[in-house]
Every structure is written in structure tokens, then in C-alpha cells.
Specification:
Blueprint: E1 5-11, H1 15-26, E2 33-39, H2 46-51, E3 58-62, H3 69-79, E4 84-87
Parallel strand pairs: 1-2, 1-4, 2-3
């Protein structure tokens, strides 16, 4: 089934809250989506946490250095090809 929705979530050093945020998205009753997580050069365990999920809907985009939420969101928007998208902040 082709996803009709993208979820776009920027992340920068949100280790204490990241697992709850990801679980919140993945546990929705609507399942037909792609989940783009754009990591904006985190220096905490964010990447490790994201990679611990074995869910094909998650697409991790890793930036080498922090350049801000606007840049991270624009990078994610370039990848979206679904009819609809929503943000998770």
C-alpha cells in the first residue's frame, strides 16, 4: 500500500523525550504513513534511540552539524512525496 501521509519530526538533542515522541506517532490507529525524523546534528544518544526501532515507516535523515529547525524541516520537506504531511514537534 502506498502511504498517503508523511509525518515530519525534527530532532536536536531530545534524548529524554525522544522515545515517547516516536512511540506516540507509531502507536496511532492510522498506520499508512512514512515517518521522517530529521536529526539536526545531535550530540546525545538520539541517533542510537532512533536506530533502535525496527519499523519500516521510519526514515532517518542525519545531518552532520546543527543548523537549526528551519533548515532541518526544509530538508525533510524536500523528501516528502505524499499527498498530506503533518509535523510532530
Amino acid at each position: 500500500m502506498i502511504p498517503m501521509l508523511s509525518v515530519l519530526m525534527p530532532n536536536y538533542n531530545n534524548e529524554p523525550f525522544l522515545r515517547d515522541a516516536i512511540d506516540s506517532v507509531l502507536n496511532q490507529t492510522f498506520k499508512n504513513f512514512i515517518f521522517f525524523i530529521i536529526d539536526d546534528g545531535s550530540t546525545d544518544r538520539s541517533i542510537e534511540i532512533i536506530k533502535s526501532y525496527n519499523d519500516k515507516r521510519i526514515i532517518l535523515i542525519e545531518k552532520e552539524f546543527n543548523s537549526g529547525i528551519v533548515d532541518a524541516l526544509n530538508l525533510g520537506l524536500e523528501r516528502i512525496n505524499t499527498k498530506y504531511f503533518i509535523r510532530m514537534d
